[in-house]
Amino acid sequence: MTNGLGAYDGLNESITQTVTWGFPYLLGRLYLNSLDGLKELAINIIKGGILYVPLVLYEGRMSPQLHNIIYGYHAHKLEIQQAYRLGGYRPMVFMAHGLMLGMWMMVVALIGFWLWRAGTVKKIWGMSMNWLAPLLIFSFIWCRSTGAYGYLIYGLVIIYIAKWFKTGLPLLLLIFGICYYLLIAASGNFAGEEIVTWIADNINPERAESLEFRFQNEEILAEHARKQWILGWGGWGRNRVMTENWQGDLVDNTVTDSLWIIVFGVNGMVGLVSITLTLLLPAASFCWLRYPARTWLNPQVAPAAACAVVLTLYMLDCVLNNMFNPIFPLISGGLSGLVMKKPEKVRAKIPKLRIAKRQLVQHR
User: Which helix (H) or strand (E) holds 180?
Assistant: First the structure.
């Protein structure tokens, strides 16, 4: 209402945000607010990924056509043009973009690997995790999403540093880095030229060009958003920057790729802070206040720890893309409910060698 669009528009937007973010968060808060609840969620995420494996493998070889075959149209207007990557096709299956599928399969692969290494789950649907976890990782690699590759690598770094050094510092540094970037980008003090140059020289010039395009658009959009910085411009495209063409018509000359810049423009700093806290505060509280890193490979704690990491990685993706998936507010709600309670008692994981010695003594 403060942006001049009226009570009806304000109510409509409130209902939209409640259904999109509030309902999944509430369900997670009510029903997944324990270690067992998050374990069930993690296992079902893996099951969802298993169902997608044959579809991913098919589209990676035959091109993203399943959506067109089933529904009669492509989910993305530039689907085929953007699909060819790394010597093959980037699958989409039934999601809005290949980047969205890559993020989803990254979550599945990381959670599956984490639960496999922690010994939380031995079998799913009668299939051993000893070959199921590598299959999920291979299927994820088949998605050909370079950004998601980086997310998985960082997730594995978090796992093994927690295992070897008993610290969650990489996760906390990532949370701090995201918050710091959003602060300087929203205030107009971010310059990404050095990042673009490094990516062009060391990774891929095409990816660097894409990132530079995003940074340039975000700078324009952030400058416009700061004119209504508290509560934003509201809907109807008012967060975008319009210019007149040679015919005198208003045309949109900006592209909004990132969730953060969309939220900042539409809902202002209030919206940006709200979504940042929703996605990062549960993970930070889990790591800092409730379950230290030395417990993250405990079979009982591992699913919740994996969920905290993928939630943070999703917020990192929101800095670059706008790929909403209701599974993430669901995870946020479950973690929020968990960290609001005292830490649950967990059984210490006994090494296999110690178990064997104990059994030998008993037989004697």
Answer: helix 169-187
Q: How far apart are CA 300 and CA 293, in angstroms?
A: 13
CA distance 210 to 194: 14
- Return the ∠ at Cα 253 (arms to 246 and 261), rounded to 5°: 160
- d(CA 25, CA 79) in angstroms, rounded, equals 31
Do 151 and 320 touch, CB atoms closer than 8 A? Answer: no
Cα–Cα distance between 184 and 285 in angstroms, integer?
Answer: 24
Give dist(CA 108, CA 221) in Å, integer. 33
Please give the Cα distance from 92 to 64 (Å, whole number).
Answer: 6
* Cβ neighbours around 70 below 10 Å, total: 9
Which amino acid, 297?
Answer: L
Helix ranges (H only) for 203-258 are 205-225
Instruction: Enumerate the domain spans of the chain.
Output: 6-363
Distance, CA of 167 to CA of 161 (rounded, Å) = 7
Burial (CB count <10 Å: 0-12, 13-18, 19+), residue 60: buried
DSSP string, 297-323: TSTTTHHHHHHHHHHHHHHHHHTT---
Cβ neighbour number for residue 73 with a 10 Å cutoff? 9
The residues, ordered by sequence, that sit 6+ positions from 161 with a Cβ below 8 Å of its Cβ are 167, 169, 170, 293
Write the DSSP symbol of residue 242: E
pTM above 0.70, yes or no: yes
The predicted structure's pLDDT at residue 246 = 66
Crossing angle between the packed helical segments 35-62 and 98-118, to the nearest 10 degrees: 130
Q: CB neighbours of 285 closer than 8 A, spacing ≥ 6?
A: 335, 339
Q: What pLDDT sits at residue 216?
A: 86
Query: What per-residue confidence (pLDDT) applies to 20?
Result: 93
Low-confidence ranges of the chain (pLDDT < 50): none
Provide the pairing of β-strand 127-128 with 250-252.
unpaired
The pLDDT score that the predictor gives to residue 361 is 52
